[in-house]
Amino acid sequence: MTDALRAVITEIEPAAALPGPLHGKRLLVKDLIDTAGIRTTYGSKVYAAHVPATTAPAVTRLVAAGAVLVGKANLHEFAWGVTSQNPWYGTVQNPVQPGRTAGGSSGGNAAALAAGLCDLGLGTDTGCSVRLPAACCGVVGLKPSWGRVSTEGVFPLCPTFDTVGPMARTVTEVVAMWSALTGEPPPTPLRAGSTVGLLTRPPSVGGPAQPANHAAERHVETLEALGTLIAIAIERTGAVEKLSKAEASRESEKLRSAILDSVTHEFRTPLTSIKASVTTMLADANLDLSQRHELLTIIDEEADQLNHLIGEAAEMAQLDANQVELHREPHGVSEAIERALAEVQQRLTDHPVEVRVLGNLPLLSIDLDRIASVLVQLLENAAKYSPAASPICIMAETNDGKVTVSVADRGPGIDDFEQALIFDKFYRGKNERYRIQGTGLGLAIAKAVVEAHGGAIGVTSQLGHGSVFYFTVPV
After folding, report:
1. d(Cα 195, Cα 33) in Å, to the nearest integer?
2. CA neighbor of 443 nearest in space, from 401, 407, 473
3. What is the pLDDT of residues 233-292, one digit of tens each?
């Protein structure tokens, strides 16, 4: 399968086709749907190595009807978007109208069908994720009524709206897929040969006026009503956004005392340990050598922690004032990764770490120490917020004149609202700020360092399934 369209994430060697109404039809399944023994990424690097143990019933039904599985289709990450612009597996291209979007989130299915890479596509549709890409690429897509097709084995987006839908190049093929998916006989067309959408033509447009089409006029009225509802929805969205910003401002005020408590605690904790150790040594002259060594070790470790906190605050102030001079030299990104891993290896003992450097990456003009410190921050956060024994994946690759480095974890995830705030100074996650201590400066410093190199930093996340923090550096 030749895929210049970036429509396919994983290609599959076809098995022998079973007899049935879909016999021999090549089936491309959206990579949001589980297939046993076959990598299923959900469009994210968090699940780049995920291999399900079971196959979704919808796929099983189509294969039983004779379809042959040939691959897993690219999609908008976690199906959370309508453009199929995927930062990890590439943006799906539209073969019918090059340069325009293929639609999403089932864009890979639609593009592959339009290009003839497959005969059938199995997508998912929560809002318009089958129908929109089908329209963009000139193929046929159907969103069945909710509950008609099993969504078991499908990564959830909104379970009360999620559906699995067939896609193909013809209505006949979609009908055959629908029948296989639901176990019901193909429906009989009710409007065969009818003309749909014929509007009255005024005399000024290409000839004399046509007889009034009252059915068409009713459709126009319906469209006008829908337009009004859409306008109301847009206004409501704007109002909600304003309320969200107001709520964020109120939340910021409420956080001031919490931040002060947190920062104070961060500084007092090492000071308390140092004071207690010194007091013990001064008060008891009979301490043996091992006891004295243990107390001195505590003093040394806590002094290092205190120095780190002071350095962090001073560095943030310098970065804010643009007073930091970068010592740029040509380095490979692998050097920064190795240096960061060496610094945090003790804090990663409970997590298997996988490093993937894709391709022969160019040297970068960077301040090696500072870029390594960015990675240290991301790795420490991944270790702090992820369950013990869960994997952490570091990946580096080049794309569009820049090198992208990402750190993926299996932590609790970050909701959309907080993703816009976590790189602000002193901000800490609302669910974690009292459970895990911190100053809220680490990500703000990382952002300032990356931007000083001319790059950008960001995060993609799904609640309950982990996060991918990434930053870019220009080549």
Report:
1. 37
2. 407
3. 777 777 766 666 666 666 555 555 554 555 555 666 778 888 888 888 888 878 888 888
Query: For the segment 318-366, what is each residue's pLDDT rounded down to a tens digit?
Result: 666 665 678 899 999 999 999 999 989 888 988 999 999 988 899 999 9
Give the separation between CA 319 and CA 450, rounded to whole angstroms. 11
**What is the C-alpha to C-alpha distance for residues 360 and 378, in angstroms, rounded to an integer?**
24
Asked whether the predicted pLDDT for residue 111 surpasses 50, the reply is yes
User: Is residue 85 a contact partner of residue 93, using CB atoms and an 8 Å limit?
Assistant: no
Dihedral over Cα of 13, 164, 90, 41: its sign: negative
Which residues are tagged catalytic? 30, 105, 129
Question: Looking at the predicted structure, is the pLDDT value of residue 198 above 60?
Answer: no
Could you write out the three-class secondary structure of the chain?
A: CCCCCCCEEEECCCCCCCCCCCCCCEEEEECCECCCCCCCCCCCHHHCCCCCCCCCHHHHHHHHCCCEEEEEECCCHHHCCCCCEECCCEECECCCCCCCECCCCCHHHHHHHHHCCCCEEEEEECCCCCHHHHHHHCCEECCCCCCCCCCCCECCCCCCCCEEEEEECCHHHHHHHHHHHHCCCCCCCCCCCCCCCCCCCCCCCCCCCCCCCHHHHHHHHHHHHHHHHHHHHHHHHHHHHHHHHHHHHHHHHHHHHHHHHHHHHHHHHHHHHHHHHHHHHHHCCCCCHHHHHHHHHHHHHHHHHHHHHHHHHHHHHHHHCCCCCCCCEEECHHHHHHHHHHHHHHHHCCCCEEEEECCCCCCEEECHHHHHHHHHHHHHHHHHHCCCCCCEEEEEEEECCEEEEEEECCCCCCCHHHHCCCCCCCCCCCCCCCCCCCCCCHHHHHHHHHHHCCCEEEEEEECCCEEEEEEEEEC
What's this model's pTM, rounded to 2 decimal places? 0.49
Query: Residue 205's pLDDT band (boundaries 50, 70, 90)?
Result: very low
- Two structure tokens written together for 156: 């959830």
Query: What are 121-178's pLDDT values in tens digits?
Result: 999 999 899 999 999 999 999 999 999 999 999 999 888 889 999 999 999 999 999 9
